[in-house]
Amino acid sequence: MVLPTSPTTATGINSDSSVATNVNNMRLQLERRAQRFLDSTISYTAYRWVFTALSLVAFLTRILMTHGWYIVTYALGIYLLNLFLAFLTPKWVSGTSDSVLDNDGEDEMGGGSSSGGGAGGLLDGNGPGLLPTSNSEEFRPFIRRLPEFKFWLSATQATLVAFACTLFPFLDIPVYWPILLVYFVLLFVLTMRRQIEHMMRHKYLPFDLGKKSYRRV
Asked: Across residues 35-54, what is the average pLDDT?
């Protein structure tokens, strides 16, 4: 025998479902507005990076004034270094063992999935962005492992999160900061040396310096 549902219970269930629906709709609207705003900033490269640089300066200024949160600073530096290496590295090269970052690193940095055409192109040597190994080969554009916009977005988000971490005293873990500084400098020198060797081995330049550019008539 089925017991009848009281009007009070039915009203409570309907109100809870309507509240959940309204919250979900508000979340979707906020996500769309945020994505629309990010899409509108794509063409303003210089202004975007100026904002990121000012955020980083504000963060470092707070670190120097408070003499704390060195662990947060070290973590931010390592993360930005990984982003920079992914930005300098081509998405496909002529050998998988010569890549500075592996496929897992590509997925973490937002460079796209390594399955499907990406991994297949690497293994069979027919990737769409594979760098030419001789002058007779067809020209292929330089495709970064981490695009510029994703590099900027990840760097800005990491800087703002690191700045927010300085508002919480329990994240200020005591540490001897000169050790972290020396270790980061050594890590930076070694990784950049490896990256430069990778660029010289595959004969590519990740920047537009010295390249011809054409303007619209």
From this structure: 93
pLDDT tens for residues 7-44? 555 555 666 677 778 888 888 999 999 999 999 999 99
What secondary structure does DSSP assign to the chain, as a single string?
-PPPPPHHHHHHHHHHHHHHHHHHHHHHHHHHHHHHHHHHTTT-HHHHHHHHHHHHHHHHHHHHHHT--HHHHHHHHHHHHHHHHHHHSBS--S-GGG-SS-HHHHHHTT---STTHHHHHHHHT--TTPPPSSTTSPP----BSS-HHHHHHHHHHHHHHHHHHTT-GGG-----HHHHHHHHHHHHHHHHHHHHHHHHHHT--SS-TT-------
